[in-house]
Amino acid sequence: MALTKLEIERALGPIEPHLAAEIAAIDATVADLVKALAWLQSDEALVNDGDHLPTGAVAELIGILETADDEDSFDVPASGEGDWAQQ
C-alpha cells in the first residue's frame, strides 16, 4: 500500500505536493521511508554496524530525498525530529 500524504508529512514535515506525489508513486511503506531517512542521516554509521546498502524502495526514496535536498526544496530532518522517530 502506497504511503499517504499524511504519513509522508509525519516523517518529513511539510513538503511540496510534487515531492509527496513522487514519494507515493514508488509504493514504499512507512518502514521504507524511516529506513531511507536513517541512511540519509547516518549512512557511515549504518555501514559500520554491518547494514547492507539499501536496495529497492529504500534506495529509490534515498535518491528522491537526496535530489530534493540538493534542490533546496526539502531538508532531511535531524535525527530524533518528527513523528517518525517515535514509530
Automatic annotation (TrEMBL):
Protein name: Uncharacterized protein
Organism this protein belongs to: Pelagibacterium luteolum
